[in-house]
């Protein structure tokens, strides 16, 4: 570390004469590490809270591979986890290019550092974009569901095939004069819920006329969601209170609302870290281009942002496991 | 750590990348297939499959921290000041919260209370 700029004073051998580097790391690098430690504890807190809520509702927690089944340009095909695996791969690869940039920095190869930094930035942008796409699918929803008065989610399956049925497949359109209330069409407007594609009455009517549609509850038995028989399904439908399409912070067609809350919160917080990482990488990349570190004869700054970038990858590895796999 | 200690590091980087990719592919394959003998048998309220996922994740974390974040080249004192608090605090927090979550589940499950917590 003797070559780094942070070492200003000449050490005379005494502890307090300056130029000392505790634990063999420069000030900036050590502080980056301790920031990472504290940030890692923040993420651990979130994931542990997720675990707490999941254990609290272990019998009714949504099954992740039923939730994340989309892949770009493969409409209607079930592709559980392929996309998120691809995202993981992209982030790991951008970590590789980052560490290659650090490595090139140690050898003071400016062009190489710049190329690898640019690749890292591109990888980060692809990842953030993928996450936005994942959020879009999650918010939009796929099949739609009914929420009961008690807050439970009822989903629908085909009696013969056992496959999920979308609300649009069996709900009917009843004549209605109801419209989406907005500020623009009201004299006195305060608030109105967003209208779903079907009302509860329309779903209930469609359910009556389609005897092959059964209700699937949230309850997990033998690691599978319980499907009710027709009589039980009709009974369950009596307590229908809301039509839920997609997910937001208060309603979630995939199951327990806490699942959606944690999904938005944890992947959002991680996505924000990736976004900040991309911005910081861009700043350092520009500094590399104008030759700031070339003049210093030290690319330690690249190493420091590298640490942050790897940390973001590290967090994703855990988010991936606990949200999508376990 | 001048340039002299960093001559053939790219080889190590690519090896670790290969390792991480293989682990991820294994995880995803297991997650899609979900072999019954792993998925249906439990150990401490967690299926064997989930234990495998968690262990593989920790292996991945180890390689990211040791190879990419270059902890293997740092002094032992720095390594310990980072790893020890994390390991201790995370295990502590997770154990307490999961036991508590399990207890709340039991209360919901075995009593009439539905929204007490």
Automatic annotation (TrEMBL), chain A:
Any GO molecular function: cytochrome-c oxidase activity
GO BP term, pick one: aerobic electron transport chain
Residue ranges occupied by any Heme-copper oxidase subunit III family profile domain in the UniProt entry: 1-326
Keywords linked to the UniProt accession: Cell membrane, Membrane, Transmembrane, Transmembrane helix
Pfam families per UniProt: COX3 (PF00510)
Transmembrane segments: 32-52, 81-101, 113-133, 262-286, 307-325
Recorded family membership: Belongs to the cytochrome c oxidase subunit 3 family.
Record protein name field: Cytochrome oxidase subunit III
Automatic annotation (TrEMBL), chain B:
Single GO cellular component term: plasma membrane
Membrane-spanning segments: 12-33, 48-68, 80-99
Membrane topology value: Multi-pass membrane protein
Presence of the UniProt keyword Ligase in the record: no
Keyword Cytoplasm assigned: no
Location in or out of the cell: Cell membrane
Keyword line: Cell membrane, Membrane, Transmembrane, Transmembrane helix
InterPro entries registered for this protein in UniProt: Cyt_c_oxidase_su4_prok
Pfam families on file: COX4_pro (PF03626)
Protein name, UniProt field: Cytochrome C oxidase subunit IV
Organism: Flavobacterium akiainvivens
Organism ancestry: Bacteria, Pseudomonadati, Bacteroidota, Flavobacteriia, Flavobacteriales
């Amino acid at each position: 570390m003797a070559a780094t700029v942070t070492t200003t004073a000449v050490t005379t051998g005494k502890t307090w004469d300056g130029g000392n580097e505790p634990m063999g790391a420069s000030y900036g690098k050590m502080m980056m590490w301790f920031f990472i430690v504290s940030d890692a504890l923040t993420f651990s807190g979130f994931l542990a809270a997720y675990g707490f809520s999941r254990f609290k509702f272990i019998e009714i927690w949504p099954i992740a591979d039923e939730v994340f089944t989309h892949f770009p340009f493969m409409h209607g095909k079930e592709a559980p986890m392929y996309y998120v695996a691809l995202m993981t791969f992209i982030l790991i690869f951008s970590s590789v290019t980052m560490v290659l940039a650090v490595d090139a920095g140690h050898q003071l190869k400016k062009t190489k550092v710049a190329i690898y930094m640019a690749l890292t930035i591109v990888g980060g942008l692809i990842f953030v974009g993928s996450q936005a796409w994942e959020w879009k699918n999650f918010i939009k929803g796929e099949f739609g569901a009914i929420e009961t008065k008690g807050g439970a989610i009822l989903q629908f399956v085909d009696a013969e095939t056992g496959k999920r049925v979308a609300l649009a497949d069996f709900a009917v359109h009843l004549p209605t004069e109801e419209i989406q209330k907005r500020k623009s069409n009201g004299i006195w407007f305060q608030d109105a819920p967003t209208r779903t594609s079907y009302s509860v009455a329309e779903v209930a009517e469609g359910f009556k006329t389609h005897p092959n549609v059964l209700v699937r509850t949230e309850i997990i038995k033998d690691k599978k969601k319980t499907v009710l028989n027709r009589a039980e399904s009709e009974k369950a439908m009596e307590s229908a209170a809301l039509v839920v399409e997609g997910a937001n912070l208060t309603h979630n067609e995939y199951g327990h609302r806490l699942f959606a809350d944690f999904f938005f919160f944890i992947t959002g917080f991680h996505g924000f870290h990736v976004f900040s990482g991309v911005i910081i990488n861009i700043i350092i990349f520009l500094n590399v281009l104008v030759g700031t570190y070339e003049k210093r004869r030290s690319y330690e700054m690249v190493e420091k942002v590298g640490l942050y970038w790897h940390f973001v990858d590290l967090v994703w590895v855990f988010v991936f496991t606990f949200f999508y796999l376990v | 750590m001048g340039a002299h200690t960093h001559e053939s590091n790219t080889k190590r980087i690519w090896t670790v990348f290969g390792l991480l990719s293989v682990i991820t592919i294994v995880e995803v394959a297991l997650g899609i297939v979900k072999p019954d003998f792993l998925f249906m048998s439990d150990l401490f309220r967690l299926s064997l499959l989930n234990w495998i996922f968690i262990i593989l994740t920790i292996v991945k974390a180890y390689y990211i921290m040791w190879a990419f974040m270059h902890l293997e080249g740092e002094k032992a004192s720095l390594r310990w000041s980072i790893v020890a608090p994390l390991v201790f605090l995370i295990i502590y927090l997770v154990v307490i919260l999961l036991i508590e979550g399990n207890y709340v589940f039991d209360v919901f499950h075995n009593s009439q209370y539905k929204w007490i917590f």
